[in-house]
Design brief:
By secondary structure, the protein is of the alpha+beta class. The radius of gyration is 15 Å and the shape is globular. It has a 5-stranded mixed beta sheet with strand order 2-1-5-3-4, sandwiched between helices. Helix 2 crosses helix 5 and helix 4 crosses helix 5. The chain contains 5 helices and 5 strands. The structure holds FE2/S2 (inorganic) cluster (2 copies).
Length: about 150
Amino acid sequence: MISLNVNGKVYKIDVPPDTPLIWVLRDHLKLTGTKYACGIGECGACTVHIDGVAKRSCVVAVGDVQGKRIVTIEGLPKNHPVKRAWIIEQVPQCGFCQPGTIMQVAYLISKTPNPDPEKIIKEMDDIICRCGTYPRMKRAVKKAIELLRKGGGK
Ligand code: FES
Ligand code: FES
């Protein structure tokens, strides 16, 4: 039995410890905001936070994250500056890649106290959006930083 802390709740799940985290999130916990795309840690669609750090849940085994705090897109507060900025700038097209992208940006702005938006965008080079929403993402990252400065952490 695997014990996982997801979005502040503890779950017991009967899966082998080498099961990728994404399948437990989506199939067992029905947290389907986390998306599966490449499955090899290359695109970012499945990004979640593990103990506050952005990780790709398709290449993380559940056995390795027992006792850690996992946060998915559903657990990121509704009024989080990145979620607000994404709505203000109307970033998504099909939307498939966006939960992972938002989790990646939320992590980047949380670890960078005085973020230079261009540097953050460089750090996001390996996020893949098949719809090509990058110009809107770029505007939204700047907006999220502005909202973060104005309104504090959340
Ligand atoms: S699905 Fe995990 S990085 Fe692409
Ligand atoms: S919005 Fe469609 S893949 Fe990014």
